[in-house]
Design a protein that fits this description.
The model has no long low-confidence stretch (mean pLDDT 96). The protein has a domain of 209 residues: 3-Layer(aba) Sandwich (UDP-N-acetylmuramoyl-L-alanine:D-glutamate ligase). The chain is an alpha/beta fold. The chain is built from eleven helices and 14 strands. Strand 9, helix 6 and strand 10 form a beta-alpha-beta unit.
């Protein structure tokens, strides 16, 4: 059984089904993401209230760990949440995980997810309590005993978040824990260039992202000796090691929200008891099921 530890944003995802024209009005590039203030969040929630289609717990690393747990992996998650109903709902959604959370005086974070008719997701996140993510949120014992550490660029937005990244990688490297680092959005690469440069100078086993994210990362940094997992949307996914590529079943997607998160989580859970080819195929198949539903997780999957 794989033992996977991760930390990151604790968010409530609120999905809205809107037109491409309405998306343009938000000023957020289609398929991208933007961090917004609490005031902007309230404005968007009010403006699109009648177009809401779901309200579920999310957060990229939590989504990955939930998918990993559904495949039998022991999954542990650290985060910062608010003492509010959203925080309670978030914790209730990850009962299958071992959770280490710190309470913040801020409200629990909310991610507004705009879904266009083609199923593409575009995100606007109000981080709030996630701004208080810090090394004290980590469980050093759990991390030391893990096989894989999962983290992504969403934790780089604050100094305390980056300190958490540095501390976790230091512990992982000392204890021979594989590190899997996700590039969550193209825009975050240039914004966090120096921080990503430091991360990639450490012992990182896996880097993952979609085609655009991986391409941008390769243009900016050397990824020598790192296995690169690239999600290819409707075309499936690939791993640089061994030039592995698998296909996805053709579907009409409801929403792509959380599909890439799930793919990485399932692959990490299965890569030791299956070949990388088979583990990646199973991960793509699981991610395809995510695309058939609203929300980033399959309910009752664990």
């Amino acid at each position: 059984m794989m033992n996977i530890y991760g930390f990151g944003n604790a968010l409530i995802d609120v999905e809205f089904l809107i037109t491409d024209e309405e998306l343009k009005e938000t000023g957020i590039p289609k398929g991208g993401m933007k961090n917004i203030s609490s005031e902007e969040k309230d404005h968007l929630l009010s403006k699109f209230k009648k177009k809401e289609i779901s309200r579920t717990a999310g957060g990229s690393i939590a989504n990955s760990l939930s998918a990993a747990a559904s495949q039998g992996a022991k999954s542990s998650f650290s985060c910062s949440i608010g003492s509010d109903t959203d925080g309670e709902d978030f914790l209730d959604s990850i009962k299958a995980l071992e959770v280490f959370s710190a309470c913040s005086s801020r409200s629990t974070g909310v991610c507004i997810v705009f879904i266009t008719p083609d199923g593409e997701r575009t995100m606007a996140s109000s981080l709030d309590a996630n701004l208080d993510l810090s090394p004290k949120c980590l469980s050093i014992k759990s991390l030391k005993n893990s096989d894989v550490l999962l983290l992504d660029t969403f934790s780089l937005g604050t100094d305390s978040g980056f300190n958490t990244v540095k501390e976790s990688i230091k512990i992982a490297n000392i204890n021979n824990v594989e590190v899997c680092f996700g590039i969550s959005d193209v825009s975050l690469i240039s914004l966090n260039f120096d921080k990503i440069s430091w991360i990639l100078s450490q012992k990182i086993s896996y880097v993952y992202g979609n085609e655009d994210e991986v391409s941008e990362l390769k243009n900016a940094f050397s990824l020598k000796d790192k296995k690169i997992i690239t999600t290819l949307g409707a075309e499936g996914a690939s791993i640089s090691e061994g030039n592995i590529k698998v296909s996805a079943k053709a579907i009409s997607p409801v929403s792509t929200n959380g599909a890439g998160d799930a793919l990485v989580g399932v692959f990490m859970a299965l890569k030791e008891k299956n070949s990388h080819q088979d583990a990646l195929q199973l991960a793509v198949d699981y991610a395809t099921e995510i695309c058939k539903i609203s929300g980033p997780r399959i309910k009752n999957a664990t």
